[in-house]
Amino acid sequence: MQQGLWDLNTFAPKLDVVVPGDTIPAMFWNAVKQRGDNIWMRQKKLGIWRSWSWHQTADAVREIAAGLQAIGFAPSECASILSNTVIEWVLADLAVLSCGGVSNGIYPTDAASQVHYLCEDSRTTVLFVEDDEQLDKALEVRAGLPGLRRVIVFDMEGLRELDDAGVMSLDALRALGRERLGADPQAVERTVTACRPEDLAILVYTSGTTGKPKGAMHSHAGLVYTARGYNTLVAQDDKDERMCFLPLCHIAERMGGEYFAMYTGSILNFVENPETVPENVREIAPTVFTAVPRVWEKFYSGVMIALKEASPLQQAAYRWSIGVGERIAERVLAGQPVGTGLKLKFRLARALALDNARKLIGIHRSRFLVTGAAPISPELVKWYLALGVPMLEVWGMTESCGASTAVPAARIKPGSIGPATSYNEVRVDPATGEILVRGPNVFMGYLNLPEKTAETIDADGWLHTGDVGVMDEDGYFRITDRMKDIIITAGGKNVTPSELENELKFSLYITDAVVIGDRRPYLTVIVMIDQENVEKFAQDNDVPFSNYESLTRAKEVQELIQGEIDRVNAKFARVEQIKKFFLLETQLSAEDEELTPTMKLKRKLVQTKYAERIEAMYR
Amino acid sequence: MSDTVLQLMNVESAYGPIKAIRGVSLRVRKGEIVTVLGSNGAGKTTILKTISGIIDPRKGSIEFQGADITAKDPAYIVQQGLSHVPEGREVFPLLSVKDNLLMGAYTRKDRDGVARDIETVYGYFPILRERAAQDAGLLSGGQQQMLAISRAIMAAPHLILLDEPSLGLSPKLTKEIFEIVVRINRERGTTILLVEQNANMALNAADHGYVLENGRIVMEDSCERLREKEDIKEFYLGMKDDGVRGERRWKKKKTWR
User: Fold this and answer.
1) Last residue of some domain: A482, A514, A543?
2) Which range of residues forms the domain containing residue A478?
3) Which of A147, A403, B25, B157 is most buried by its number of CB atoms within 10 A?
4) What is the tens place of the pLDDT at every residue in B133-181?
5) Is the domain of A514 the same as that of A410?
6) Which of A133, A544, A548 sits opposite B9 (nearest CB)?
7) Complex ipTM above 0.85?
8) Are A587 and B257 within 8 A, CB to CB?
9) Is A326 within a domain?
10) Best mutation target, A116, A309, A546, A591, to test chain B (most B CBs within 10 A)
């Protein structure tokens, strides 16, 4: 039986499970020594979950690293990884770092031209690709990358006929590595010990909503420091099961997934592919679960859809149960004790409905949930609390190596990003309202961009985050907007679009929204609908539609969204209300330029791309 | 619209707990050949069965020539002028070819008309005249398909639902059958709703097409335009560029736009 929401102040880190080490490879090899045959990773292959012990992982990493050395990969050279989140990603990453190299991730959804840019900018000499699909991108741009010496393919399926001197399989690389290790068994140990904490370890390219992506540089010291820091926030240990499914090129999964699990010994379970996440969550039933708001929204709407199809009795049971959960959540949030009667009722509520909702999502074993990387609606956080699962919001950015503030389990305040973590300082710039971060976790700067770095980290070492916020009397921060997104209407009113957008996004029917109105007479919004739920709505209400476009054009759907906007408008002053809107008519996927790899609409791009339709709203 | 023969509005049908079609809306205009494309299990046959009354939909409505026929008795629907050629032919194997044709005309009272229509179908498919007295079970697969189509024509329908006429037929026979289907449409003015896996054939024969995936329509357009869509080319017509290596095994993601 796990703890109730009412006694969450016992998340103490276990100090006997963590490992020493001042660089990522040192930490990894210490972990191998300490944990040996324990399991570190699992991945489903052909329907069966296969485990990787620390020893097995170490063998693979050692061979890959030696193989890299055999093909001339020298310390401080850069290797890039172009792949979905799979075990080989982690193996390649750790091998590159064990060679003293720099590891850089590329989103598998990136187009060939982006792969070209990232390899060129990072001066990649070795490129790991997942399969034939990703290989084709590399081959397309190889001619323009004179520095790229070798492409290594994880999965050779469909490539047996390939005869290309510049391309080899991961297995072939490992064979080369074995050969080298036979002659020189200490080859990898030497580069591991030679690696210094202040050396550049990884590059994380920021999504770049404006202009080209920028490569944020993190040192070993910064990464190791942050991994240790995370354990003071969201302590986990070797009994914990995590799910590894967000892109590993993103700081959240790289740091909070891979490196943090390496430090604590928690088990990483890899999903089969991005489409199977919902099923895999249920199979894995993670005990610690970090995800982005979009995932939490999807889970919520999945439960809502199931509920609509349930019998009236089941619906009544759910309503009563969630009501009990909400009352408890309210008391916990207000810092009031929860009475025995309510606790008993909550047991019943769990047995009646809440446990089923949790199982439906796959969070029935979760000790806590962590959300970050984008703002989340407070209502959604409260819903998870009502289910009895604490949801902790963290805030940070690539440049701060992930979390800089975090909501502590003992005192959750939905809508707030929590106080500064113990390992860095956070303050609000009194002049601009911008939130600033300082600490060893702050990055080294942007690769090849000294001016941009100087703009971002000031002379006193403060990282300018670009987020505007306030701090309350308890030291909790609240983000109000991105600096550059603040809208000043033609009437001179300052409006923070993200407040409106977050309210809109809590609607079941709206996935994302971009509010427009800078130097305009009134506010308007571009809405991306939630296909699944709007289709369901259309079916339930006999709205005929044949495809996505006709769905967005249906009068009833337009009215539905208008209704959602009206609901949000009611919470805002008149000048802050949205007067008009339009729905994006194409169904967007991560490959589309309008979306970031984390599936958020790119504000600037959307504004230019749909300029014509935006103008139409002001005519 | 007045020239609409058949209109489905948000039709949802299920086999027990499994929803086969989830909110399908489509429209067939008079004199058109309309095709529904989709892979195995997309719900194509279910759409036809729901129209002809074999399955009652959970939701939605079906209008045929301006009248509501949702969940009506199949026999009643046939009398309204809607014939269904089922998947896998389903001829009466122990009846003669002629009797099979007469079974098709069971609901009709005009003997002269029936006699005329028998002559017409013999005109389309001369082999049926030769085999008129033989048991239908002795016909080849292609001939049975011809008989099944002919049997549907015998009811003098305004609309024929044609379920995968190419099933199990050689490419040559398939081509012949499709030619006749187009002829029936042009000469008799019979409207046809055609369900097919053979996308190339169907897109050439039909005027308007819908693409069905997992029980939902993901795309609709004139067949001319459908043929030019990237997704249709790659996933339904098997045309794709070979990529940088000259061979490409991986599939692009469907976007349906």
Assistant:
1) A482
2) 290-314+361-482
3) A403
4) 999 999 998 999 999 999 999 999 999 999 999 888 899 999 999 999 9
5) no
6) A544
7) no
8) yes
9) no
10) A546
